[in-house]
Amino acid sequence: MIKRTINGKTPQLGQDCFIAENAVIVGEVHMGDQCSIWYNAVLRGDVHYIKMGNKVNVQDGAVVHCTYKKSPTTIGNNVSIGHNAIVHGCTIKDNVLIGMGSIVMDDCVVESNSIIAAGAVLTKGTYVPSGTIFAGMPAKQIKEVSPELSKGEIDRIADNYVTYSGWFKAE
Phi/psi at 137 (nearest 5 deg)? Predict the structure, then answer.
């Protein structure tokens, strides 16, 4: 893991977290407990802060960044950020799945219990209501999240990544 202080700001990691050896975490990053940051993921809190809750997983190749002095990134609890996703200067509330290869741009707000489909592009300032699924480019609401989908995807993936990280911490 590369953990670097930038402009006097040092990443703060929670308890029981897994950080891959080649993940990069720099600057003003505040991470909750039971988080996992996977291979080639980058969290750059160099131009503004990144605040993450508990049980957040940032999967392989994902990038979390901000906009200089304008748009920080805030991520709630129980959030999965899929492989190669970009989360930039936005707010992600609790119990959210950000699909693989999706892009969430500045000033977007993704309310709780929502899913951003793989490959979706949320353009600047997009608002995602609680309990909805957004897909496409630009992303639009396609349906609502059923209780089965919430348990079967949002909770399952977040829980699985806590399990997976345990395998790596045990080695």
Answer: -140, 105
Please identify which residue in the block is written with the tokens 């209780």: 147
**Within a 10 A sphere around the Cβ of 20, how many other Cβ atoms?**
17
pLDDT 10s digits, 4-33: 999 999 999 999 999 999 999 999 999 999
8 Å CB contact between 99 and 82? yes
Within 10 A of 160 (CB to CB), how many other CB atoms are there? Answer: 12
pTM of structure: 0.96
Residue 114 tokens, joined: 């929502």
| 157 alpha carbon, distance to own chain's centre | 13
How many residues are present in the chain?
A: 171
Q: For 154, left (φ over 0), alpha (ψ -120 to 50), or beta?
A: alpha
The dihedral through the CA atoms of 94, 115, 163, 86 has a sign that is negative
What's the Cα-to-Cα distance from 125 to each of 59, 71, 108, 129, 155, rounded to whole Å? Answer: 24, 11, 4, 13, 26
